[in-house]
Amino acid sequence: MIADRLIFTSSGIKIKLEPEVLKASSNSELIINVYRSNILGFGVPFGKVEVRFVVEEGANLVEIISESPDGKAKIRSKGVEGEAVIGIYNIKSGMQISRVMIKILPGDFALRL
């Protein structure tokens, strides 16, 4: 019973960016992963999050090149530095879950990180 509450019960949603910033290059890509987390902070086994992604600010900076309803999206830089905002919405309710700000750094600066 305790394992069920600790491991299989969702306590929230986490968002992970890989890598955390983009370079101002047309081949720089970033993956957003949205998943349910348990009280221990790990992903819930068999926990499914159905979301869609929308570029809310900075459509001239980034584009969504692929997304899946199970919580993953691939974002590509358009080669211009700045900040873009991606909205994450629940498919069933249409309500916004969260917003993610993505920084697009100059190519030479991003190499030093």
Brief digest:
By secondary structure, the chain is mostly beta strands.
Provide a descriptive summary of the structure in words.
The chain is elongated. It has helices at residues 2-8, 107-112, and strands at 12-18, 22-23, 29-37, 51-57, 62-68, 72-77, 82-90, 96-105. It has a 4-stranded antiparallel β-sheet with strand order 1-3-6-5, with no helix packed on it. A 4-stranded mixed β-sheet has the order 2-8-7-4. The protein is mainly β. The protein has a single domain, classed as Immunoglobulin-like, CATH 2.60.40.10.
CATH level 4 superfamily: Immunoglobulins
Structural class: mainly beta
Helix count equals 2
Number of strands: 8
What are the salient characteristics of this protein?
Immunoglobulin-like, 4-stranded mixed β-sheet, elongated, single chain
Topology (elements, then pairings):
Elements: H1 2-8, E1 12-18, E2 22-23, E3 29-37, E4 51-57, E5 62-68, E6 72-77, E7 82-90, E8 96-105, H2 107-112
Parallel strand pairs: 2-8
Antiparallel strand pairs: 1-3, 3-6, 4-7, 5-6, 7-8
